[in-house]
Structure prediction request, 68 residues.
Amino acid sequence: QLQKYDAKETLPCEYTGEAITIAFNANYINNMLTAIEESIEMNITDGTKPCLFIAENIRAIVGPIKQD
Prediction:
């Protein structure tokens, strides 16, 4: 049986645009952030499409998970 967990984390950031809600697999985000020590730029088009994370020498694409 599939287990479902719910967690919310708020991170400080600079953002311009309309408010959106987006959910990611926490393991993917944690693995990426562990490897990056500098600040990260996150390019989002909307809450249903993959996001591009850009750091100095790293590019990562992380897709959102479906929210109920």
Observations:
- The two ends are 17 Å apart (CA to CA).
- Helices lie at 26-35.
- The beta strands are 41-43, 51-54, 59-62.
- The chain has a mean pLDDT of 81.
